[in-house]
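> @MW can you paste both from yesterday?
MW: sure, first one:
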Amino acid sequence: MTAAAFGVPLALVVLNRGGMAQTEAVDARAGRRLAARAVGDFAASVPRLIPGPREGLDEAATGLLAWERAAQEAIRDRESGQNDTGLTGLRQLLEEGTLQRALEGFRTAVRPGRQAVPAVAEVSAHWSFLNTAVRSRLLETGGP
């Protein structure tokens, strides 16, 4: 009777701890599966923002950066009272058609205003779910 009085509660404690460890492992695996699914959904939604070729977007960004640098240099030259060498650089870019090519690259690579709203909303919703629900679940279960 004494052995049963000590043995049964001890066995229940051991079984309870084993059950808790198993439950935590199941929760951790479920969290990782949820994260993998949510990341996949997020990754699938991002390309909808830029339906055109990525190379066109990279070229457009390079062209606009060149224009920005040339404009900043022209402004600095103008403010410092130097000659208009900065304007010469802007004129050269204009003659080469850099701005027109860059803007056309953006037009073909990026969805225009109202057409982008559903894609932006979808990406935003996926990111919000990842950042709040999935992240907190992974942190709770000790996942990366």
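MW: second:
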Amino acid sequence: MGTTAYGDWIRDFEAARRERAERGDPEWRTGVPLHPAIRRSVQRFQVGEDGDGAELITKAEAAGDAEYASAVRMFVAEERNHARLLALLLASGGAPVIASHWSDRVFVTLRRALGLRLELLVLMIAEVVALRYYRTLRDGADDALTREVAGRILSDEERHVPFHCHRLRRSLRPLPPPVRALVTSGWRAALAVAALMVAVDHGPALRRLRVGRGRFVVEVVRSSGPIAATMR
């Protein structure tokens, strides 16, 4: 990817949108055997994916880069599609979506109170945790439909993280190197806390998916090293 323009990212998002349209939805069916722990876990992640993204779009537009703002709108559209897929997965298992969850309220409150740079740092915490969560769900779920939905979302998240890294690298570049190192170290510490909170909150589901709480946290934290280096 180029170091300044977002045209390549826009083309990536557009290619992914065309691929989704050509592929169509999974074959939804009723009676999917969602274990209660996994059902509760998916309900909580569905809430997190279901934000409208208006604040992020507004801040991206205010940054004065039309290409970046366009790419952010495409990112938000993919997140909304994730919420739709998870809602339909829950419906296939006879489960409703939930109106809210405390973890989502915390993240939304933090993000809305911050400028674009800090909002992206908070958003990246959720994105990196989501990478490990959806990989766990894809690899450990008992039924094919859940594995397919998780795999589709994971494919998008694997593009979202470098997209946000690209912007954060540009945003942090004017800072002195010691300050950049302090910011990314603080981000990694906050990510570790968030991963621990998710591991505790979703512990029964993680056990069902054959990934313990400790392993989940360790793998999230381990994955953050190269990401932080990229942001620096």
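> thanks! Residues 134 and 150 are 5 Å apart (CA to CA).
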